[in-house]
């Protein structure tokens, strides 16, 4: 039975042909391209996206357009020291799909497929208003608390110019 998406993340008419599913190893190249085209994400090596799609497919989602191409993704993993916590590594949406709720749909889809998960975590830089809004909306839709705390300071990074990373923790989710 198809699950209804929350009102905030409802389907846009042009998204009816978008399919959400777990990625396969071969999807790594498409995820890398989307991350590169985002111009905002930290771009990892192409190899890391291939491995991610192999080793963390069950905690990640890819959005495919009507032609089967990648038009969005969320990569995540269950924290080894907190297996009830899904950590969201990256969220990307193709330019042509932005502003239509796809990122929220992917988060909901992914969270709904993680049995035993009670919390979602992600880090957001202070200037990333789009991600801040996404996670605030997700918390509201789940009727869950959202807490923020400093995780990594700018000086923790080995390169100049990287902003601090604020930990967003959402949960616990209602049973």
From TrEMBL:
Pfam families: Acetyltransf_1. Its EC number is 2.3.1.178. Pathway: Amine and polyamine biosynthesis; ectoine biosynthesis; L-ectoine from L-aspartate 4-semialdehyde: step 2/3. The keyword Disulfide bond does not apply. Keywords: Acyltransferase, Transferase. SUPFAM superfamilies: Acyl-CoA N-acyltransferases (Nat). Residues 18-158 form the N-acetyltransferase domain. CDD domains: NAT_SF (cd04301). Belongs to the acetyltransferase family. EctA subfamily. This is L-2,4-diaminobutyric acid acetyltransferase. It comes from Actinocorallia aurantiaca.
């Amino acid at each position: 039975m198809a699950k209804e998406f929350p009102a905030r993340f409802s389907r846009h008419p042009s998204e009816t042909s978008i399919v959400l599913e777990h990625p396969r190893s071969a999807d790594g190249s498409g995820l890398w391209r989307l991350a590169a085209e985002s111009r905002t994400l930290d771009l990892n090596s192409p190899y890391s996206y291939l491995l991610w799609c192999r080793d963390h497919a069950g905690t990640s989602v890819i959005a495919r357009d009507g032609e089967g191409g990648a038009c969005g993704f969320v990569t995540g993993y269950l924290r080894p020291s907190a297996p009830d916590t899904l950590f969201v590594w990256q969220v990307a949406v193709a330019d042509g799909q932005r502003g239509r709720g796809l990122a929220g749909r992917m988060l909901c889809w992914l969270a709904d497929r993680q049995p035993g998960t009670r919390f979602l975590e992600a880090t957001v830089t202070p200037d990333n208003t789009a991600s801040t809004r996404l996670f605030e909306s997700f918390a509201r839709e789940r009727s869950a608390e959202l807490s923020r705390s400093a995780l990594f300071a700018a000086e923790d990074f080995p390169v100049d110019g990287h902003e601090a990373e604020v930990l967003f923790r959402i949960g616990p989710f209602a049973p």
